[in-house]
Amino acid sequence: MKKVIPVIMCGGAGTRVWPASRETMPKQFIALLGERSTFQNTLLRLNAEAFDAPVIVTNHDYRFLVEEQMAQVGISGQIVLEPERRDSAAAVAIACEIAAARAPDAVVAVFAADHAVQKVDAFQALCLKAAEAAALGHIVTLGIAPTGPATGYGYIRPGAVAVAAAGVAKVEAFVEKPDAATAQKYIEQGYLWNSGNFFFRADVMRDELAAFEPEIAAAAAEAFARAKTDLGFLALDKEAFAKAPKTSIDYAVMERTSHAAVIPADIGWSDVGTWQAVWELSDKDDHGNAIRGHGVVVGGENCYIRADDTLTAVLGVNDVIVVATDDAVLVVGAQYGDKVKDLVDELKRRKRKEAREHRRVYRPWGYYQSIDGGERHQVKRIVVKPGHKLSLQKHFHRAEHWIVVRGAAEVTRDAETVMVHENESIYLPIGSVHRLVNPGKIDLELIEVQTGSYLGEDDIVRIEDVYHRA
Amino acid sequence: MKKVIPVIMCGGAGTRVWPASRETMPKQFIALLGERSTFQNTLLRLNAEAFDAPVIVTNHDYRFLVEEQMAQVGISGQIVLEPERRDSAAAVAIACEIAAARAPDAVVAVFAADHAVQKVDAFQALCLKAAEAAALGHIVTLGIAPTGPATGYGYIRPGAVAVAAAGVAKVEAFVEKPDAATAQKYIEQGYLWNSGNFFFRADVMRDELAAFEPEIAAAAAEAFARAKTDLGFLALDKEAFAKAPKTSIDYAVMERTSHAAVIPADIGWSDVGTWQAVWELSDKDDHGNAIRGHGVVVGGENCYIRADDTLTAVLGVNDVIVVATDDAVLVVGAQYGDKVKDLVDELKRRKRKEAREHRRVYRPWGYYQSIDGGERHQVKRIVVKPGHKLSLQKHFHRAEHWIVVRGAAEVTRDAETVMVHENESIYLPIGSVHRLVNPGKIDLELIEVQTGSYLGEDDIVRIEDVYHRA
């Protein structure tokens, strides 16, 4: 059997676990559980004999994050950039194009980048069966064996046997998210959760898309045909892709096709959609408290604390989730986890930048983080990865002092280029054309002190940029 | 009538409103309500015709804080330094010595620095009456008209009329903090709360102390007689003061003297002893939420949020207090406010520095605040008040880069002295003897980047210090 092509949907801007996740660093890139992100764990789960190298469908904004997180776990693959978000039907259509270009009957498996799977062996075994049924022409979705009457998922009613050997059934119906009583009934009747992960043959799905959503099929085909490779990324054609109507693959195909099948999956799956889900998946003490980082609970039960840097104490409160980052704190009742998105929307209405951005901002060359600010000054910590270089740039309103605290910097300042070593500094007057390079073998860390009358990030003129941002 | 000598007890290390208050910046110096500290509001309340300049009894560690907070509200007075904490009886004995040195029959009024009084006019009118009765030889305590059956205060049972014109009664009994049912009974029987603020004639209190606690009286007399003036502070003699047994003025005198009297006080008083009390005294919205700083409540009632810099959101939780500082977060159930002290003790056991210190550390010359740190570097913001100078010093393990971002610095570095202006920097190599002075008219602000193998605050050799810390 040919290898399955795994496609990971990695373009979402999930804010349901704010303030840890934000638009500029969404949920799939966060180490929600353990030390790796759910995206990285997804990569590792799919790093198995049955699978080809992964295809990552992501957003232009996340391309360097995807690249770096893949490098961290030593997995390479093809990174495809959507010029804008057009929902899952368009993304699946693109997956079909990519797979079909390799072999028309290639089996494709589509996975979300932000789900957790605790039983990896069971998952991998299940994938083999799902792929087997997909190869026969079924569109096989993973139907999760419910652990309770959840109201946050759609359900699937399994029907007649489709592929007996693989344990795959026909889908009798997809049903919407139920209320609690209906959910209980569904469970008793053997319904399964719709996980939104599925397997199909490229030609089968392509035909279904062409039949049900010809505009999407045509837009995807054209966007792929006109795609350009830039810095190793496959950038879909913007104009063509924009023609794809925005709709989910569930509506576009799954609920209409006669090929829909389901494989019951007991794989310890969670979409980690709320902080409550994170608490459920975490190790707890005798009082039901789960603590990550600098948390302390006294006289409280069933609490979750996530505090990377800030000492966070809960005293005399039960069933509460507290998440403290360096610029935002969330205190949410355990039953209100699904309202976090509404809160973030409210914060956006109030124009709070914490709703969208972290204080640490990732760039292709590393990151910067604001650590202090005043009326006429700002202090940043800048970390540049070995071999990377910032753009050649200048500012109209600010001068900069750089103090190297780790590693070595090669600094271009107007006509000269000098090396600045640990415990040395250099001054960049207003208007000077400058560039920062890390020519060394370890991270370069420096403290930047900006002074001036305007310190906005947009006071930058990029004269030349290896990351094509100029 | 001679003016009353107000004595403000300002040496406590109150941590009941941690993390806002800590040992290095206790409750009385914090702007708990409004823009000023309770100490400053106390000073302003006593800045009235009937009162002489205040005497502040404080701890050696807080002397510059007291001085600065007095300067901020434009009030001067005598600052007396206790070499160590010996509880309130010793402090009152010292107040007697100070007052008696001016006039043996001077009327003294002793106030806590960390209480709130909402009805200032009523308070001042009351003080005149209390002083009148004190001049007649009574030791008059303020008996607060209870607003509810509080279990956190001692109660006073008023007895026969003492001074009819002043509305002052004899104290029939002081009673311990009651349980809720007993408190209810006390209220029905007209008991008053013991506020711990009182008026007396210096000679009367001195005689009572000499009779009941001769060791305290003797120790105070000797510590005062041998006191030395240093930088304008009156520093009590350490050895003599240490001989005073540790006990409260309630136990030492008030519960034993036949002179105890009480004046009913309807003055909007609170000892602001818990975060719940802060919530009670704060303005609230229609849902009972009180927010100070960057707080947001969605779907919650009767919450208090204090967030000076960090966006703090409460979602779907009622009756909770959330206090976020730059290095610590407290989430406490409204009914558990009196357990904060226990939590702080627990944090001390865990050797958390946040239990004792703030990130911003006040010094006689201004403050410094740690803003970033790594393995071999640390970044601080340093603010020096106009006309102030740091000690002449050197370090064994660290070099320092100073970048001036506001004001002007006069920097001595070994043999040279140079001016460093805004947007200029200077480097201080390891071992160099240096001093920082603000010769200007506005605050000097600079960013200090330290690099080295050991960055502890104790790597400092003070060669010369205008604040006598060398």
Provide the gyration radius of chain A in Å.
25 Å
For the record, the CATH class of the largest domain in chain A is Alpha Beta
Given the C-alpha coordinates, what overall shape of chain A results?
Answer: globular
Number of domains of chain A: 3
CATH superfamily of the largest domain in chain A: Spore Coat Polysaccharide Biosynthesis Protein SpsA, Chain A
Structure description:
2 copies of one chain form a homodimer. Chain A is of the alpha+beta class. Chain A has 3 domains: 266 residues, Spore Coat Polysaccharide Biosynthesis Protein SpsA, Chain A; 80 residues, no CATH class; 105 residues, Sandwich (Jelly Rolls), CATH 2.60.120.10. Helices cover 23% and strands 35% of the residues of chain A. The first copy, chain A, is built from 11 helices and 28 strands. The first copy, chain A, has a 6-stranded antiparallel β-sheet, with no helix packed on it. A 5-stranded mixed barrel of chain A has the order 6-9-7-8-12. In chain A, a hairpin with a 3-residue loop joins strand 19 and strand 20. The longest helix of chain A is centred in the N-terminal third of the chain and has 16 residues. Chain A is globular and about 75 Å long. The two termini of chain A are 46 Å apart. The model of chain A has no long low-confidence stretch (mean pLDDT 94). At the A-B interface, strand 15, strand 16, strand 17, helix 11 and strand 20 of A face strand 15, strand 16, strand 17, helix 11 and strand 20 of B.
